[in-house]
Amino acid sequence: MASVLIVDDASFMRMMIKDILTKNDFDIAGEAANGQEAVDLFNETQPDLVTMDITMPEKDGIAALKEILQQHPGAKVIMCSAMGQQSMVIDAIQAGAKDFIVKPFQADRVMDAVQKVMG
Amino acid sequence: MSAAPQMNAQHINAITNAAVIIVKEHLGMQTGFSKPYVSGSQFMSSDISVVMGVNGTLEGQIICTMKNQTALSIVGSMMGGMKVETLDEMGWSAIQEFGNWVAGRAASELAKAEAAIDISPPVINEGRSTFRVEKTFLTIPLTSEAGEVLLHVSITPRVNE
């Protein structure tokens, strides 16, 4: 069973994403509420996939994405942000994100992205 | 003394559209808005306010305020149509996220008006309070099945000092 690290500063969003993933038989490797926690938890749990918010206190999702990829070039990270303007999406994809989901989302959109990235 | 900088109508439309899209398409509620009005440099909030900072080519604040009952309906709808009677930690997080959705969508709509902005993580203010700024608030009244949500907006082009 594939494991996912969920990163979002809002506990409500973590709950929503966790609910979608567990209903589709994914394991939750952990939950992080900011970019630094995400980097630390990634190193600790080595998940198969990460869902990463962008606007977060302490360290934002783009900085965390770059740090994770520097240490683990094969990491699979899907960005998940309410800020869906084109420039934000381009920045994230250029930094190495595999996909970009705009919040609020439907469960199907999340599962499409996850299944595509997990191949 | 120079006149207060005017808020751009295109920017106000972008924020209004964003709020309507979130409430209508994502909360599945009928919604509409009335004509925005100038509230001046201060306003009295309703029971709950979600405060967000705007940075980028525009700067200022977006404050989203509503009655407790309206917040409960919005949170219930965000949780898939549950009846929510009080806001617990998850409920507070949800109403914060509602503000984030509106502001995030506003950032996308503003990008179409060639304004590039970033939003700071939302802060919640509980209880009726007076909010003051040095500039001017423009208030966008949004009506929905959940009740009235007022968007108090104070954004002007960034001035490089």
From TrEMBL, chain A:
InterPro entries in alphabetical order: CheY-like_superfamily (IPR011006), Sig_transdc_resp-reg_receiver (IPR001789), ST_Response_Regulator (IPR052048)
TM annotation in the entry: none
One protein family per Pfam: Response_reg
Domain Response regulatory intervals: 3-118
Keywords per UniProt: Phosphoprotein
Sites bearing 4-aspartylphosphate, chain numbering: D53
Biological processes, Gene Ontology terms: phosphorelay signal transduction system
Protein name: Two-component system, chemotaxis family, response regulator CheY
UniProtKB/TrEMBL annotation, chain B:
Record-linked Pfam families: CheX
Top-level taxon of origin: Bacteria
Gene Ontology biological-process annotations: chemotaxis
Chemotaxis phosphatase CheX-like domain sequence ranges: 48-141
Keyword field contains Chaperone: no
Organism encoding this protein: Salibacterium halotolerans
Protein name: Chemotaxis protein CheX
Keyword Repressor set for record: no
Entries under PANTHER family matching the protein: CHEY-P PHOSPHATASE CHEX
Entry keyword set: Chemotaxis
